[in-house]
Please model this.
Amino acid sequence: MSLRQCRLTVRSDLSVLIRVQEWFEDFCLQNKPLSTWTDARLYCLKLAIAEGFSNAVRHAHHDRPPETPIDLELSLYTDRLEIRIWDYGDPFDPDDVEEPEPGTLRQGGYGWFLLRRLSDRVVYERCSDRRNCLILQKRLERRSQNDSNTA
Model:
């Protein structure tokens, strides 16, 4: 069971990316006493949520109207943060995307490579409601009781 959870639904439009990132950052800052949020960790997670959201808009929803909703959920557990992003695109298997060779240029596929580097666990699955769910997990360090009293 999560300690804290927050949900957001936005339209499938890259112009709301800043709103998504601000929502994410607000959640992290509100829950800072529960976990360590270094600037570097926050930056990596903001980059991961931005990549996941923009993939849903640009790839999963490329042929759908901007009103198509994208649902996001943040769940803070004692040991990890979990980001979930649901889209209405066609089923997709990210394991079919080959990791780019170092030093090569190609179109596409770098997003999955990046998500796997920024997260400890990445899952993309088809749900029973015919949506896809991207799950990003990142382990967190627990603050000691003394640290939370001084923070």
Q: What stands out?
A: The chain has a mean pLDDT of 85. The chain has four helices and five strands. The helical segments are 17-30, 39-60, 110-118, 145-150.
